[in-house]
Amino acid sequence: MDWGAIDRYAKSLIKEAGHRIRVSFAGKIQIETKADANDLVTDIDREIEQFFISRIRRDFPGHRILGEEGFGDDVSSGEGVVWILDPIDGTMNFIHQRRNFAISLGIFADGVGMLGYIYDVMADDFYHAYRGEGAYRNDERLPVLEPVTVDKAVIGVNASWVAPNRYIDHEAVGRLVSDCRGTRSYGSAAIELAHVAAGRLDAYLSMRLAPWDIAGGSVIIREVGAISTNLRGEDLDMISNDTFIAARQGLHQSILDQYIRLKQT
Ligand code: IPD
Ligand code: CA
Ligand code: CA
């Protein structure tokens, strides 16, 4: 497999998709809801996913695609080469803020993350990594992260998880919020992972993410020595929805041991 060629191809596809998204702001965006009133999707999410899928199917007919909007393949195993795509991660930001959303793409071979991309479209910040070759923000190589303790850590966590919820003991998450240096929430899992990779967040956690939210980011953060697992500390299968944490070495285990009390769901 010529991963260098796939890498160049994926980068140019993502840049073109980013351009299409920016241009879309000139027209009227159609907004619909999915699972509930706050689960939003637009015609642009769908158009961008279809754009990726038509190109990938044309140029890599043997590869499979797992995309959030459902135009890809029905992927139930990690076999072969799988492109895991979120055409717009942070759709609520896309609609309400017209910024702080990203294209997220991970390319996996037999379940192993080979290439990862997060494109913060409006900031024009492109995070990318090729397994074993380091992670980059645009042309700048991201340094390997130093360890940090909870009291000095800035943690990405959504306020939903410190309110009563069905997934986790929210009081334990509240203790984490009190014990760490500060918390942030950006409304795009992919952008939060880019922040972990770049050392702006020391950890990011969520109770329910899908493979397309984290596929690109998990490849990128690994290259700077960070770890991503579910909140039981297990590897992610990149097929099903799961709990999620990405953090620097050491901090990852401290958070799991001291602050994570999952409920049986
Ligand atoms: C969502 C964003 C958000 C996260 C949600 C995701 P979407 O993705 O990443 O930050 O909290 O769980 O579903 O729907 O905007 O692609
Ligand atoms: Ca998403
Ligand atoms: Ca999305």
Overall description:
With 265 residues, this protein is α+β, with helices and mostly antiparallel strands. It folds into 2 domains: 3-141, Fructose-1,6-Bisphosphatase, Chain A, domain 1; 150-259, D-Maltodextrin-Binding Protein, domain 2 (3-Layer(aba) Sandwich). The protein has 7 helices and 14 strands. The strands form 3 sheets. Strands 3-4-5-6-7-8-9 form a 7-stranded mixed sheet, with helices on both faces. The radius of gyration is 18 Å and the shape is globular. The termini are far apart. The mean pLDDT is 97. It binds D-MYO-inositol-1-phosphate and calcium ion (2 copies). This is inositol-phosphate phosphatase. It holds the Pfam family Inositol_P.
Q: In sequence order, what are the helices and strands, one letter per element?
A: HEEHEEHEEEEEEHEHEHEEH
Categorize the overall geometry.
globular
Q: What CATH architecture label of the largest domain applies?
A: 2-Layer Sandwich
CATH class of the largest domain: Alpha Beta
- What helical percentage do the residues reach? 25-40%
Bound molecules: D-MYO-inositol-1-phosphate, calcium ion
Major beta sheet, strand line-up: 3-4-5-6-7-8-9
Mean pLDDT: 97
Strand content: 25-35%
- Structural category: alpha+beta
The value of Rg in angstroms is 18 Å
CATH superfamily of the largest domain: Fructose-1,6-Bisphosphatase, subunit A, domain 1
User: Tally of extended strands?
Assistant: 14
> Sheet bearing the most strands, described?
7 strands, mixed
State the end-to-end CA separation: 40 Å
